[in-house]
Amino acid sequence: MVQGICQLSMVPVRKEPTHRSEMVNQLLFADTYTVLNEQTGWLRVVATHDEYEGWINASQHFATTPKELQLLQSADRAIAYDLVCTVPGSSTPVLVTAGSTLPAFDGLNFRLGKERLVYNGKAIPAEPANLSMIEKLTNRFLGVPYLWGGRSPFGIDCSGFTQVVFKYLGVALKRDAYQQAEQGFIVNFINETKPGDLAFFANEEGKITHVGIVLKDQQIIHASGVVRVDRLDHFGIFNTSTNKYTHQLKIIKRLT
To answer: Which of 70, 114, 143, 220 is 20 to 30 Å from 248 by CA-CA measure?
Structure first.
């Protein structure tokens, strides 16, 4: 079984083994994965953190051994907090984005394979955090453009946004909105919501296609065009700029 680790800022994960295929996900720096099978110049992989599958280009694959992978997963880890931080490497520098993992981080140095690297930005320990941080964490992504399959400050989709934010809170979310809706506990009424709850929205067929994070005062932050804050009520998301409802509320879940 071949295993790998992302050593680039991010690696696009595609639906089919071609550059023309849609990007369905991204591996962030230090994300690990298992190779399922190969096709000329492409590898089908499954990400360790959420078991999401897709194709990456073989030129962006960096193999790791099971022993090295075990050490990375067992060591103390932190999560990059700065939106972007340049990390000098042995050959070329890497732009490490918010939400990326820093294995064996001691406050300045971290380990990637046999290499010791320096991270000069701010990082948060990978452990359960207080939900009082939710507004501070989410606001860092305000204005980030929407990008289907994205998980970084250069472009992010709705479920990628919630997944990265909850990573800081020690909660492992699945990748897609409909998968995330299967996690947690139901909140029955809109007036019972708390900051940090996840609100899910359905299309005309009733399928869950969108997710956002509930804030105080019945507001919601979500990736729709850009990461933005709108009003939330029992009907759904109300855009005050257009005076229209944009998403129909389906269910609200509490993760912590």
So the answer is: 143
Query: What pLDDT, on a 0 to 100 scale, did the predictor assign at position 114?
Result: 76
pTM score, whole prediction: 0.94
The CATH code of the domain that includes 209 is 3.90.1720.10
- On whether both 25 and 94 belong to a single domain, the answer is yes
Which of 6, 61, 222, 247 is flagged as catalytic? Answer: 222
Of 81, 109, 126, which residue constitutes the final position of a domain? 126
What was the pLDDT predicted at 3? 92
61 is catalytic: no
In this prediction, the residues of the chain whose per-residue pLDDT falls under 70 are: 71, 74-75, 90, 129
- Residue 188's domain spans which residues? 131-254
- Tens of pLDDT, residues 164-207: 999 999 899 999 999 999 999 999 999 999 999 999 999 999 99
* 19 in active site: no
Cα 52 from Cα 196, distance rounded (Å): 24
Q: Say yes or no: 171 and 188 in one domain.
A: yes
User: 6, 85, 210, 247: which one is catalytic?
Assistant: 210
Name the residue with tokens 């919601």: 220
* Calpha distance 192→121 (Å, rounded): 37
Does the annotation mark 158 as catalytic? yes
Using alpha carbons only, give the angle 252, 253, 256 rounded to the nearest 5 degrees: 145
Distance separating alpha carbons of residues 83 and 181, to the nearest angstrom: 27
Q: Which of 126, 159, 183 is the last residue of a domain?
A: 126
In one-letter notation, the amino acid at residue 234 is H
The structural domain count of the chain equals: 2
